[in-house]
Amino acid sequence: MDGPVKRRYDTSRRQEQARENRRRILAAASALFREKGYAGTAMPEVAKAAGVSVQTVYKAFANKATLLKAVFDVTVAGDDEDVPIAGRDFIAEIQAEPDAVRKIELYLDHLAGIAPAVSPVQLLARDAAAADPAAAEVWAQMRREMLLAMTYFSADLLATGQVKPGLTADDVRDILWTYHGPEQYELLCLERGWSPQRYGKFLRDAMVAAVLA
Q1: Which residue of 72, 86, 114, 165 is surrounded by the most CB atoms within 10 Å?
Q2: What's the CATH number where 203 sits?
Q3: Contacts of 168 (CB under 8 A, 6+ apart)
């Protein structure tokens, strides 16, 4: 009887240790990517900063590009829980809101709040893509995921009946996707010094004017 109990205990302990190692690796990688850039960050440095072996890093993340994508995902979600963005409370709030303008306001409030953390990671992936095929695939995956998210958002806005006549779902999706790109944050906040709040209001006004009647 003691044997099975011990095995369950050992398995639970190993799983918790793996989760803790993953959290430490992600935190270390996030700090190093921001400080030294993608090309300037080496996996052994991540391991040292996280207090784990290099083998542990590679066991959790196949390569540096995979690690960058995981850093991005955790930054967007705010945690490493196994809950998709579509299942998060702020998405449910947007979907429940009947007014299209308010939907966009709620979304942009959220985006402006996370942009200072998320956009630099996106820009790291974009810049790394020019020299690293694995990073290029990660960047392409980020773009595909955002396009899919804006496809859902477009359908949600169209369902309100408040979208400009003549705009198709694809039109609305592409407009939202364009404004959502990290390039807007790069230009306005990083280069021109806008606050995230001003950036969010600009996007809100631009999206409303572009897609709503």
Answers
A1: 72
A2: 1.10.357.10
A3: none
Contacts of 138 (CB under 8 A, 6+ apart): 65, 66, 68, 69, 72, 125, 129
**Shared-domain flag, residues 74 and 54:** no
CA dihedral 57, 49, 37, 128 (to 10 degrees): 0
**CA 84 vs CA 78, 88, 100, 176, 183: distances in Å:** 11, 7, 23, 20, 25
Q: Residue 35's domain is classified under what CATH number?
A: 1.10.10.60
Beta carbons of 128 and 66 less than 8 angstroms apart: no
Q: Are 50 and 75 within one domain?
A: no
Question: What phi-psi label fits residue 161: left (phi over 0), alpha (psi between -120 and 50 degrees) or beta?
Answer: left
pLDDT (tens, 9 = 90+) of the chain, 213 residues, equals 455 555 555 678 888 888 999 999 999 999 999 999 999 999 999 999 999 999 999 999 999 999 999 999 999 887 666 666 766 788 899 999 999 999 999 999 999 999 999 999 999 999 999 999 999 999 999 999 999 999 999 999 999 999 999 999 999 999 999 999 999 999 999 999 999 999 999 999 999 999 999
pTM: 0.84
